[in-house]
User: Fold this.
Amino acid sequence: MTAQTTARQTTHTTWPASSRGFVADRLVVGLLLLCIALAAAGVFLTAIGLFSPARLMPTWGPVMEQTILLPALPHNLGRVVAGATAVLVGLVAMMLLIRRIVPASPSASTQHHVLAADEHGLVLVDKKGISTVAEAAVQRVPGVVQVTVQVLGQGTSTVRLVVRTWVHAGAQLRDVGQQASERAREAVEQLVGLQVHDAVVRLHVVPMEDLDRVVE
Assistant:
């Protein structure tokens, strides 16, 4: 089985523990959802008459209030439509925001793989354990500084490995990628007992300043 190896040289690479870009993206989306929810609340309060943009902002508040209340619709229908729409948009925004803040608990079926199954029962191994075995093997490859392994697949199917490997600037990328793929597959197949369909290795070159910080 031939593994796929992708070598990617990155001059500014964050460590798995920090994930600054990922956190920043989640923060921006979360703030956007919060703003949408607050705007929907303002529209709802305006529709039921508890809030008046015209009084709060004399310059352009009246135009905003007229737009919110949909004056083109028959008497009071605009208020009803605006209020109902605001409630719907606000609820959706809050649900999405809560889902981003509180991650859903993964089910047991997606976190375990079946090693053996017969009339006497099942033998399961969790994906974190599979990742740990593969990471320990790849960590011994010369030039590797840090590694994380993601295990794809569930049930009794073969697994696919995504091996993200951080190497120092002097490493031979092709050699490191091939060894990382081979060692990850061999460790999972021999020590865990699962067949590996393929392994994708993503290489990242660690900047010297980050390498010095890690060594310290």
